[in-house]
Amino acid sequence: MNEMVTTIPIDQLHPFPENPYQVADNNELQAIVESIRTHGVISPLIVRPREEGGYEIISGHRRRAACEKAGIAAIPAFIRKMDRNAAIIALVDSNLHREYVLPSEKAWAYKMKLDAIKRQGQRNDLTDSGTPDQLGQKSRERVAVDVGTSATQVQRYIRLTELIPPLLEMVDSGKVAFNPAVELSYLSEKEQEALLETMGSEDRTPSLSQAQRMKKLSADGLLDMEAIFRIMTEEKPNQREQIKLQKESIKDYFPKGYTTQQMEKTILKLLEEWRKKRERSRENSR
């Protein structure tokens, strides 16, 4: 049976509450605008009726935004009656094809879908065990299968929803890496705010090792501003000043066939002899 397409005035199409996916005014959106101007809306939106009137968008937030920019007054859509849980699942699934999804978008989308599946309850394939922990695990496994990852990775993304907004924005921008961010999500809001303040004043971001240590101190009730400052201001191995010599620029000073390790050993030996010679020279000049 073919589904009927209905043309709906654009002012009757409303965004889905708490939609985890951003509608950014970028080149990708502009490309959709140009496509719609040339070809029209090829794929109808998917919407559901709202109790207060109008329709709630399940799939097609960017298409609606593009139509608005293109000056289109009405948009074709499929109208489907579904409850909020089914709508959330459909919303998340409809965005799986997107080329790039921000970490925060994945985090909130996975969480919304997981909660919706749990609320659906009484599904035979989810409630065989009967215990909340097993129900949660099976729900995570279902989300994982749908999005093409592991249940563990789903849970790690969901942990990001525990970050305060400024830290989550840093994860999206790439300033804070994903793995340290997951560890930082276990810090309390107050501890995260103290960390954010230290990151700003010292212009540093935590490594995975630093984030893990702060998580451990937090669990032990020992993470305060002083501890955060001490950890964040320590010198990281990759921040230590280094002197690098290109092999090609020094190989002529060594016998043919010398390995890099032999060259390094010889250079250090010569430097040690030079240091001793300078010390003797200073002593003789006294």
Automatic annotation (TrEMBL):
PANTHER family: CHROMOSOME-PARTITIONING PROTEIN PARB-RELATED. One of its GO terms (biological process) is chromosome segregation. Residues 121-142 are annotated as: Disordered. Residues 123-137 have a biased composition (Polar residues). InterPro entries: Chromosome_partition/occlusion, ParB/RepB/Spo0J, ParB/Sulfiredoxin_sf, ParB_N. This is ParB/RepB/Spo0J family partition protein. Belongs to the ParB family. One of its GO terms (cellular component) is chromosome. Residues 6-96 form the ParB-like N-terminal domain. GO terms for molecular function: DNA binding. Gene3D superfamilies: 1.10.10.2830, 3.90.1530.30. SUPFAM superfamilies: KorB DNA-binding domain-like (SSF109709), ParB/Sulfiredoxin (SSF110849).
